[in-house]
């Protein structure tokens, strides 16, 4: 695989705990396999329960006795701006880390990585004016002071598909609130978390405010069960999210959950398919479909189904699939072997379930190594089919026909998820009216926008709470009401 040789793809052999790079307490190691060459490329230590306990103890000490939660918000903001500047210096390295571990095209990762710095800057600006203290009056004329205080020691657990930004959403908001953090990235993608830890160290944040303990499922489970963790900020699968909520319910630890999706793009009867095409091409299967908010169900009027397929299929067939390190590549491989196995299982289920395979379905010719799957479109899909109900997390899109707007709304909402969506129409007011009928946490009219300065999250089994925007800060705050008698 071609890659920028200046980028050292090596994870440090230590964990970041209490402001120091500390040696692992056990010799457990994790391997990362390249999605392109199928060869192991990175070996790094996995945190054991004892390492995680040390990280939580450091975060607890920093929260109870350190300056961070007690600082003026403007002082915290200046640290966050320093972190943003340090991240900005390393964007090229962050983009390559993403491309190398996940197989996301370098053209895309380069475009997206500045969001990480944006999030730190955004929360720095927000807390300068945020009403952490609100003086009010009771009906009897007495004074009331409503305070917003940091929740405490927080665990930030993230998945592998967009490794840095899904961690940054939590860390930037949690730190801005005055919390102390223990980060546990996905075992498949530790590199960006190390870069973040280095930036936080260089920015001079007090000891113990941010701690990094990369580990797998077992380590994550130990972390969420830890009695000193006041809150878990989690992004990942719905199944693990439910497990975390059940565990946290025992001690009523706070949780915010960003989970799976099966989002619909609804092309209303008057939609302009040519206008819709660019955003559908990018967002129906971004990062080889491994993005929670992908528009994986395309709802089209039955009367215009053929016209839609004539527009969409040639564009899908024309996607340039190949080495993600090549700037011309539009779609790379799936991130790991188990992911390809799962996606191929869904393609088989689509065929067996009676959907029409309109394009793709196999492995691309000429790419013998790497976890590649062709971009795949099924038409004549009905909402009861497995491929229409379950999150595939691969480059597989279902085209579902509808008769009228009521039928479209019913089909769009026929899912246990509710993360994202899009509505296309030449009439924005009509699209807006339809958008209000969709049971989903986010929507775009005539395109797809996810902006970290605005809330993002799910209805139903797509999650709980919101990340981004002021709502993302609220996730890390408790409300205290002080009455003056
Ligand atoms: P996953 O749920 O398997 O793992 C996510 C993280 O949780 C990893 O760090 C993992 O090590 C950890 N984990 C696993 N079991 C745990 C346990 N018992 N206790 C504590 N931590 C545990 O998900 P994944 O395969 O890494 O990511 C893909 C999923 O993430 C998809 O379902 C996708 O839709 C979802 N996702 C959601 C969003 C969103 O914002 N809503 C964004 C990206 C991905």
Automatic annotation (TrEMBL):
Spans traversing the lipid bilayer: none
Record SUPFAM superfamilies: ALDH-like
GO MF term list: oxidoreductase activity, acting on the aldehyde or oxo group of donors, NAD or NADP as acceptor
Signal peptide bounds: none
Alphabetical list of CDD domains matching this protein: ALDH_AldA-Rv0768
Domain Aldehyde dehydrogenase residue range list: 21-482
Classification via PROSITE patterns: ALDEHYDE_DEHYDR_GLU (PS00687)
Cytoplasm keyword on record: no
Keywords from the UniProt entry: Oxidoreductase
KW Nucleus (keyword) present: no
Active site: 258
Organism domain of life: Bacteria
Family affiliation: Belongs to the aldehyde dehydrogenase family.
Name the record gives this protein: Aldehyde dehydrogenase
Biological classification of the source: Bacteria, Pseudomonadati, Pseudomonadota, Alphaproteobacteria, Rhodobacterales
């Amino acid at each position: 695989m071609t890659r920028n040789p200046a980028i050292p793809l090596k994870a440090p052999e230590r964990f970041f705990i209490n402001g120091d790079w500390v040696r692992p307490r056990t010799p457990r190691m994790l391997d990362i396999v390249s999605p392109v060459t199928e060869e192991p490329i990175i070996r790094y230590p996995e945190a054991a329960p004892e390492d995680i306990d040390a990280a939580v103890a450091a975060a607890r000490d920093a929260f109870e006795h350190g300056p961070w939660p007690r600082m003026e918000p403007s002082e915290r903001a200046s640290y966050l701006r320093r972190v943003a500047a340090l991240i900005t210096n390393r964007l090229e390295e962050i983009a390559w880390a993403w491309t190398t571990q996940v197989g996301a095209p370098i053209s895309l990762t380069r475009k997206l990585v500045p969001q990480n710095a944006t999030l730190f800057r955004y929360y720095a600006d927000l807390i300068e004016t945020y009403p952490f203290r609100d003086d009010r009056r009771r009906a009897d004329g007495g004074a009331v002071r409503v305070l917003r205080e940091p929740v405490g020691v927080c665990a930030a657990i993230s998945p592998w598909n967009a490794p840095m930004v899904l961690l940054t959403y939590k860390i930037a908001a949690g730190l801005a609130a005055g919390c102390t953090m223990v980060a546990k990235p996905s075992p498949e993608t530790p590199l960006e978390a190390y870069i973040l830890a280095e930036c936080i160290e260089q920015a001079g944040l007090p000891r113990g405010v941010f701690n990094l303990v990369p580990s797998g499922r077992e380590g994550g489970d130990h972390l969420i069960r830890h009695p000193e963790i006041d809150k878990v900020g989690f992004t990942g699968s719905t199944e693990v999210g439910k497990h975390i909520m059940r565990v946290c319910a025992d001690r009523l630890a706070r949780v915010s959950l960003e989970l799976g999706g099966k989002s619909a793009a609804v092309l209303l009867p008057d939609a302009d398919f040519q206008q819709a095409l660019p955003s559908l091409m990018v967002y129906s299967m971004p990062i080889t479909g491994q993005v929670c908010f992908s528009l994986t169900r395309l709802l089209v009027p039955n009367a215009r189904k053929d016209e839609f397929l004539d527009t969409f299929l040639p564009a899908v067939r024309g996607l340039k699939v190949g080495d993600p390190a090549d700037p011309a590549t539009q779609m790379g491989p799936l991130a790991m072997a188990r992911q390809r196995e799962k996606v191929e299982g869904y393609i088989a289920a689509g065929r067996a379930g009676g959907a029409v395979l309109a394009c793709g379905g196999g492995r691309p010719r000429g790419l013998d190594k790497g976890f590649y799957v062709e971009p795949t479109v099924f038409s004549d899909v009905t909402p009861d089919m497995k491929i229409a109900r379950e999150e595939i997390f691969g480059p597989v899109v279902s085209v579902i026909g509808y008769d009228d707007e009521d039928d479209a709304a019913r089909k769009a909402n026929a899912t246990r998820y509710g993360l994202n969506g899009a509505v296309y129409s030449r009439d924005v007011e009509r699209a807006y009216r339809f958008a209000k009928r969709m049971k989903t946490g986010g929507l775009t009219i005539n395109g797809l926008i996810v902006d970290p300065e605005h809330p993002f999250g799910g209805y139903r089994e797509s999650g709980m709470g919101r990340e981004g925007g002021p709502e993302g800060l609220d996730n890390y705050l408790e409300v205290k009401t002080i009455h003056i008698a």
